[in-house]
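REQUEST FORM: STRUCTURE PREDICTION
Request ID: SP-0412
Submitted by: Lab K.M.
Chain count: 1
Length (residues): 197
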Amino acid sequence: MSGNKAFKVGEKILFGIFGVFIVLATVSYIALEIFRSRAPEPIFQVKTHYDFSPEGERGSVIFRESGCTSCHRAMRNGTNMGLDLDGVGSKRSRDWIYQFMKQPETTYSARTIDHGGRPKEAAYVAELPETSLQAIAAFLSELKADQGSAASPLPPEGRSEFIDNMLKAWAPESWKEKYADIRQRNAAPAGTEEASH
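STATUS: Completed
RESULT:
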């Protein structure tokens, strides 16, 4: 009996399909990168902004040098293994961010995956010097989200067909009596007030 075993027809077909997928994925990636590098405008609209104070600038350096980008994305750099922090300053205050880094599970009121006591991977964050934690908190609090972005507390300005269709499809009728549409309240003429719940 020989040690070499020929592939069966089904195995050859399976490996062939797998090979075609690999080739298509590689070609698609290369084509997208070429298109992206030559596009006159960004493919995706940027919906976050920042205007750093000197402490915020120092915090951005400490954030990168401390290895935070190995889990988090900020200023469109890093990975998405953890939360994307672009726009977090529109959701959380500087003090909240600082308290979370110092005592994550107390501030968050729940167990965290990576932050907290050892042996968690990001336990070292709470052990950074006070000045570093304050600078990182300043940096993150200055990452703001534009209205309508995923990180913004406010929806896009004006009407959105997508939001209207989702509300029609999923929001129970009882919600219309209980909650006010923030888009209507923001669009109300001056001098008029709508009740909000």
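NOTES: The radius of gyration is 24 Å.
Reviewed by: T.R.
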